[in-house]
Amino acid sequence: MKDIKELIAKYETPGPRYTSYPTAPHFSPDTDKERLKSLALSSSAPMSLYIHVPFCRDLCWFCGCTSSVCRDQSKADEYVGLLDSELLLWCSEGMQRRQLRQIHIGGGTPNFLSAEQTERLGEIIRRHFSISPDCEFSVEFDPRTLSEEKVKAFAKIGVNRASIGVQDTNPEVQKAVNRIQPQEKNEAAAAWLRAAGIREINIDLIYGLPLQSARSFAKTLEDAEKLAPTRVALFGYAHVPWMKPTQKNLEKHPLPAPDEKVEIFLSAKEFFEKNGYEYIGLDHFAKPSDALIAARKNGTLHRNFQGYTTHAGLDNFAVGLTSISETKTSYRQNFKSMESYKSLILSGTIPIERGIILNGDDILRRGIIMDIMCSLRVRYSDYGVDFKSVFAKPLALLEKMREDGLVEIFDDRFEVTNLGRLFLRNIAMLFDGRLSGGGHRYSKTI
Ligand code: SF4
User: Fold this and answer.
1) Smallest Cα–Cα separation from 429: which of 372, 359, 361?
2) Is residue 437's pLDDT more than 60?
């Protein structure tokens, strides 16, 4: 087997993160909106709900999310009202009262909302949907603007899982990325969440930021571990200033060289594995007790726009600015501009900006790509085609990955090895039928 760093250098190439297939650059404003709506309304099965809260108090310069700086709390009042109106528009189109098995509030900063606004949002969710007793209800929290009162409000509306955005606890790195966040704030957030009964805690970290090194990041890892998360997302920073011009600010300080970035990731992986976490793949680690591990074992692990989730097979219904919804055969995305989002809702139009309706080939490839990313196994008989002849070319390329130890190939299937978990995006890319289209520049795969 080749040296791991050699392999990383060999496979480092721009590629999608496969939170959807086809990926978002293939969504088009010309897609038939009436058809997108009818696909959304054609099922009454349980589903997952995503709510986007776009406001942030300050802008972190690395951020790739759709967020806007806001200091005016009344904007959030208006926005919560727009979310309600968006759902009412769906009801007027015939949306049934569907059961939610999973709810996620992301952003932006969901805890930009005051305790009162959070309770109002909870009331809106309950008015439009029924919530299954085992519903996973998660929220992304920014400890810098969290308070005990806000945590209590989120617990009151049923939140049972929290993602704490830690990123990096080194003060120099924090200055360089415009996100000053003392570790005491992280510890206070974790303590408030646990005291309020929200015991499932994820930590989000970022590697590849300016001034980071494997040595400096070791302290961040220790600080993260002190918060006792059951799940860790260790995102590789994607430097895409052509899409996110604010990221230009990060170029004032040296970004870690590719070798150093790999070193940071590998030492973090080693750290988490030593501390009892399993590497799920890509950017996720979880303790054996975490639902992600059980989901991987029983085949219900899924990838969507929030990353890895535990409920495969659910439609994802998303509301709010820029949010992306998913059905079995389509994706649709709301407008990214607040002006357009608001004016459409006020004029009585569901604010879909673009989308895609999947053809048979997309559905087939989506199944294979999701199996690579989630089950780490592709069984040829699962897809209803003569797999070996339809995918002769990717299977021939996969042979080279087998030589590198990334996959094992059997007569009826291939499986991703432990080493191959580092290269899931590369393996999935072999089965992507749309890689050359979309006119999009992706971040590096590793
Ligand atoms: S990282 Fe979070 S808090 Fe920072 S700008 Fe992005 S969404 Fe806002």
Assistant:
1) 372
2) no
* Atom number, ligand 1, closest to the C-alpha of residue 108: 7
Nearest atom of ligand 1 to the alpha carbon of 59: 5
User: Distance, CA 286 to ligand 1 centroid (Å)?
Assistant: 23
pLDDT tens across 351-367, in order? Answer: 999 999 999 999 999 99
Check pocket membership of 220 for ligand 1, CB cut-off 6 A: no
What is the SS3 assignment for 233?
A: strand
- Gap between the Cα atoms of 153 and 119, Å rounded: 6
Cα(60) to centroid(ligand 1), Å = 5
Whose Cα sits closest to atom 2 in ligand 1? 108
Domain over 1-22+359-440 is classified CATH 1.20.1250.20: no
Q: Where are the alpha helices (DSSP H) in 129-182?
A: 148-156, 171-177
pLDDT in tens, 51-106: 999 999 999 999 988 778 999 999 999 999 999 999 999 999 999 899 999 999 99
Rounded to an integer, the average pLDDT of 235-255 is: 91
Q: Whose CA is nearest to atom 7 of ligand 1?
A: 108
Would you say the CB of residue 208 lies under 6 angstroms from ligand 1?
no
What are the extents of the domains in the chain?
A: 1-22+359-440, 24-357
Q: Domain 24-357 adopts which CATH fold?
A: TIM Barrel (3.20.20)
Tell me the pairing of strands 302-304 and 284-286. unpaired
What is the average pLDDT across 393-419?
A: 96
**Ligand 1 in contact with 59 (CB < 6 A)?**
yes
The count of other CB atoms within 10 Å of the CB of residue 6 is 11
Return mean pLDDT, the chain: 94
Ligand 1 atom nearest 56 alpha carbon = 8
